Backbone:
């Protein structure tokens, strides 16, 4: 259905089905969680990214230069000093709990409510991200239509 809509609207699209990277026959090698999994290995992810980059380059008229994959350093206890720290992305804050003290809980049965509320907040954030991605895709499609 998506391809039909893209054709009707005169939009470029990528169809992986004629030459799939992941098949039933090679799933044990291309999926990190085996032939019943869904998560590609790093090598398979790179191959997928390369195919998409080539398609995007072709869609842009061959003017886009591929960039090397980003290098991500592990977090350091003492990060190196930089002239402009505001331009460097900050690592995420990870909170850990060393010990759960049940004697400090006023309402033991409130744990379920807290977990449920946390799940709901997480799902709300995910839905916000999906909405923002939807809006972004609409703008991208709109720009392609203007061409």
Residues:
């Amino acid at each position: 259905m998506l391809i039909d809509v893209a054709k009707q609207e005169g939009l470029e699209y990528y169809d992986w089905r004629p030459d799939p990277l992941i098949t039933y026959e090679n799933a044990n090698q291309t999926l990190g969680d085996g032939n019943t999994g869904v998560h590609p290995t790093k090598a398979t992810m790179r191959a997928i990214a390369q195919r998409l980059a080539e398609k995007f380059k072709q869609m842009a008229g061959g003017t886009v230069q591929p960039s090397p994959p980003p290098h991500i350093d592990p977090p350091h206890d003492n990060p190196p000093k930089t002239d402009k720290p505001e331009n460097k992305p900050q690592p995420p804050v990870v909170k850990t709990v060393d010990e759960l003290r049940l004697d400090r809980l006023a309402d033991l049965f409130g744990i379920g409510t807290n977990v449920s509320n946390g799940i709901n907040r997480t799902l709300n954030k995910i839905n916000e991200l999906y909405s923002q991605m939807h809006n972004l895709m609409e703008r991208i499609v709109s720009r392609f239509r203007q061409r």
User: Anything to note?
Assistant: The first helix runs from residue 2 to 9. Helices lie at 2-9, 27-30, 42-59, 110-146. The two ends are 23 Å apart (CA to CA).
